[in-house]
Amino acid sequence: MRAVSRLILALGLVLSPALASPAAAGQGDPPPIRAAAGPEVSVRLGPALIESAEKAYGLAEVEHQAERLKATVTADLEQMGVMAGGRVDLVLVDLKPSRPTRQEMISRPGLSFRSASLGGARIEGEMTTFDGDVIPLSFTWYASDLTDSRRQSVWGDAQWAFERFSHRLSRGQLYALR
Fold first, then answer.
1. Helix (H, G, I), strand (E, B) or coil at 122
2. Which of 21, 24, 46, 86 is deepest in the core (most CB within 10 A)?
3. Minimal CA–CA distance to 97: which of 110, 86, 79, 111?
4. How far is CA 9 from the centre of its chain?
5. pLDDT at residue 176, as a whole number
């Protein structure tokens, strides 16, 4: 009995390196596992928003919000693992701050930063799946009253709108019912 168990143990020690890795078994390195490419997301400003941004809010602040929208959507789509190989083209049609922007404070000296307004955003665009299907997207959210204002920052309501849009898009809630 001891001889049999020693033989099994010896065979196990001899064979275990060959079974442990494909390289040791003469098969070379295993192929690397690659993650699917995330979606390509682009955000541009609508013409009416560019005009109002230049006059009232400051174009740099609005462009920064477009970058925040792009980052939020990209992160949510990658986290959920959807739209791999696809494309999302968005247009930021309208954007309203919750508090006065720097440009508004400069142009209206009596305006207080503590002033609150109903902020939010309107987003349109289209989503192109990896197989070429084009799906239109549209989303609008504005605070309905001052108590509904989500955050104390200048663009807090707009950011809330971005997060809601991104959450719904990444979970299929914006296009599944079409």
1. strand
2. 86
3. 111
4. 54
5. 55
Closest listed residue to residue 98, CA positions, set 46, 165, 58, 150: 150
Q: Provide φ and ψ at 125, rounded to 5°.
A: 160, -160
As a whole number of angstroms, the distance between CA 120 and CA 98 comes to 8
Distance CA 58, CA 71 (A): 21
Mean pLDDT of the chain: 81
Three-state DSSP class for residue 17: helix
pLDDT at residue 9 in the model: 46
Is the model more confident about 14 or about 127? Answer: 127
Distance CA 126, CA 85 (A): 15
Q: What DSSP line would sit under 142-172, residue for residue?
A: E-SSGGG---SSTTHHHHHHHHHHHHHHHTT
pLDDT for residue 69: 98
28 Ramachandran zone, left/alpha/beta (phi>0; psi -120 to 50):
left
Q: Where are the beta strands (DSSP E) in 46-83?
A: none
